[in-house]
Write a structure and sequence with these properties.
homodimer; 339 residues; Nucleotidyltransferase, domain 5; 2 domains; 5-stranded mixed sheet; 12 strands; globular; disordered N terminus; ROK (chains A, B)
Chain lengths: 339, 339
């Protein structure tokens, strides 16, 4: 395929470089890739903290310019820019909603970005971008039916079905943080708001694992769990990472703690498998680096559904979203002959 | 749009009539429509009960010939035949799997049907067909992001996403009968087989509602629930329909009984909404005829997810699948100019 890669260098207006930007609630990562998708420079820094949308976008482009300067490029040498946002984005209109972490709710991103860049621009949700990235260069490569599940502070989801991102009628598809896998019949009231921590993520995210671990440890007597507490220093500081490390090393208490969050996570993933019959489920976030977690998760998913799917860890780590943003540009703006 | 309908009469090889066949585990429905999709004859009878695939298909075509005879048509006057099966069907290859109710598992339907009909043939899963039917002439009309959920003896699902049926990597998408919405952390073992009654449907199907009602009634004392038992004659004969009728009439005991299965159903539908962000959820089966059921279901779904979707009852009843089979033929074999 070298010839087609060489073609695309000249094909993308002869410019060849693409910027992929992943804006998270806390960090913003910018990658510049050449026309083959190889990263030539990367830059990660705290996300701009300002109150208004205009200053926010100005800050993002200031960071971009500084990154470009490092490699002696100017914005107009870019074949395109892809940007992922932690919210519901309509790539066609540029409208963004449900973006609690940034001062952009209800804004039109195309209008905001227009003054800074008038070349090919691909905008989307950050988890959609991560799924695109994994599908391009990572654990989803070769699959046209793939679901990405990210497990970190929260839980996110994105789907590539029949080779295309499924975004949903209101561009909020993949909001699996709200999954209900633990309904009790006696629970007949209650309500959700779109801003609160989702029910599924309170049970099964990294945050949820930490909370469950601390609760469990406080209920023990004698020396049970002492070595887990020792890892962190004190029980208040025990996080998911401590429990996962010990569970992987064969520690029985840590494995006991992990059963509950893995069980809930497995129920949700089994539901995705039963509903969508994807070829592959790509699990991202810190937990996916634990082979103990991944193999236990696969075992439990099989207890919940007879439908088969490959369960694999993500491969691109924190760069999946920014790489997906690059891929979004290439997919959207390359002519068919260049692909 | 009259002119385009008139065009298609001549367009479909000048034949104009299409057969839609919905093969269920117990009943087989055959519809013949004219080129505008209007039904000219309908025939429903018990599904052929034989042990081998060849005799089964022969029986289906015998029924078809008898229906055609009623209106003075021969098979070769048909512009096409659509057939829905209760199993996982690959419409391209004609392979069928997971079809416990019929002697067809692992067979190639195209090969079996070839000797009887060599015109345009559209084969698919029965719930997919029902979703196509509702999307064409029923509750899904005008929507390109629609999920169909059928609640009867069991629970089935099908999805039209971005205007196309989503069938999944192994053509089993929509197997929501296996949904887990009631996981308990203490439940760490167990297994599923592809043949057993799904967990979700044991809680929330019509069958599940009946079982829950009888269990609930047996636990009561005094006169509680007596009027429900009176509807059926004796507690052993109480079915979902009795409880739904009384609940709709304002009976408190019946409404109490319905809370549990509606709660479980709502959790599963909320999960579909959170994951896929569909525009519309079409609920089919007997329960959907109860406005009490539908409004309670909508209320409970909103307690589980902040993502909005329209929840509407199916409109085509038992004819949705056969009409969808007709639509599948028209969609697949009409030229773009004829659509």
């Amino acid at each position: 395929m070298k010839s087609s890669a060489a073609q695309s260098v000249s094909g993308l207006s002869g410019k060849g470089y693409t910027a992929g930007i992943d804006i998270g609630g806390t960090k913003t990562l910018i990658l510049i890739t050449d026309s083959s998708g190889h990263i030539v420079v990367r830059n990660k820094r705290p996300t701009v903290q300002v109150q208004d949308a205009e200053s926010f976008i100005a800050g993002v482009f200031q960071q971009l310019d500084e990154v470009l300067q490092e490699v002696g490029l100017l914005r107009d040498r870019l074949a395109g820019i892809g940007i992922g946002f932690p919210g519901a984005v309509n790539p066609q209109t540029g409208m963004i909603h449900h973006v609690p972490a940034l001062p952009l709710d209800g804004m039109n991103l195309l209008e905001l970005i227009g003054p800074y860049y008038d070349g090919p621009l691909y905008l989307d949700n950050d988890v959609n971008m991560a799924a695109l990235g994994e599908c391009w260069q990572g654990a989803g490569a070769g699959s046209t039916q793939m679901v990405m599940v990210t497990v970190g502070t929260g839980i996110g989801g994105a789907m590539i079905l029949n080779g295309e991102l499924h975004r949903g009628a209101g561009y909020t598809a993949g909001e699996i943080s709200y999954f209900v896998v633990d309904h009790r019949p006696e629970e007949t009231s209650g309500s959700v708001s779109s801003l609160e921590f989702g029910r599924y993520e309170s049970l099964a995210s990294g945050t949820g694992i930490g909370e469950h671990a601390r609760r469990w440890l406080r209920q023990q007597h004698g020396q049970v769990g002492e070595h887990i507490i020792a890892q962190a220093g004190r029980v208040e500081d025990v996080q998911a990472v401590h429990v996962l490390q010990l569970a992987a090393a064969g520690d029985m208490d840590a494995q006991t703690i992990m059963q509950e969050p893995i069980g809930y996570m497995a129920a949700g993933i089994a539901n995705i498998v039963s509903l969508l019959n994807p070829e592959r489920i790509v699990v991202g976030g810190g937990v996916s680096e634990s082979s103990y977690y991944m193999s236990e998760l696969a075992r439990r998913v099989q207890q919940f559904t007879p439908i088969k799917a490959q369960l694999v860890p993500a491969q691109l780590g924190n760069e999946a979203g920014a790489l997906g943003a690059v891929y979004g540009v290439l997919q959207t703006f390359r002519t068919p002959a260049e692909r």
